[in-house]
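Treating backbone geometry as a discrete language has practical consequences that deserve illustration. Part of our work consisted of pairing the sequence of a single chain with a tokenised description of its backbone. What the numbers capture is local backbone geometry rather than side-chain detail. For completeness, the protein is quoted in full, as a sequence line and a line of structure tokens:
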Amino acid sequence: MNSIHWHTKLFDELTVNELYDILRLRTDIFVVEQNCAYPELDNKDKKCLHVFATLQNQVIACARIVPPGLSYPQISIGRVAVDVTHRKDGMGRTLMQHALLKIIEEFGPQDIQIGAQCYLKDFYGSFGFEPASADYLEDGIPHLDMIRKASVYDI
């Protein structure tokens, strides 16, 4: 039976195939599926920690942990993406749990800020993220900033 494997790597530790699969998944979702032309390659990946899942050596879910000061004053989780074939099986929830645990392991409990698509407000809210801005458009898609306080330890 094939099983899902979880990985956390710095940019320079990614294999060429892992990097290609991560960028392909993100482009398939954020550019093609969401019909949004925007700069997917934003010069932040090289400074991020990448959390991803593979099944049969293919990336099926990924997110990046963005260091403080690069996107927000706080550490951040971004580019959260799950292959369409794994969205209804809890993969997004498991991906977020892995990212949150990795932040606690590597950096200790701290505030985390994200820029969430508005339709995912309740999803991120289930992890303790609370709205921290009014809704705004980013690349034509409604977003809002959300913060998870360091005092929230439930994952």
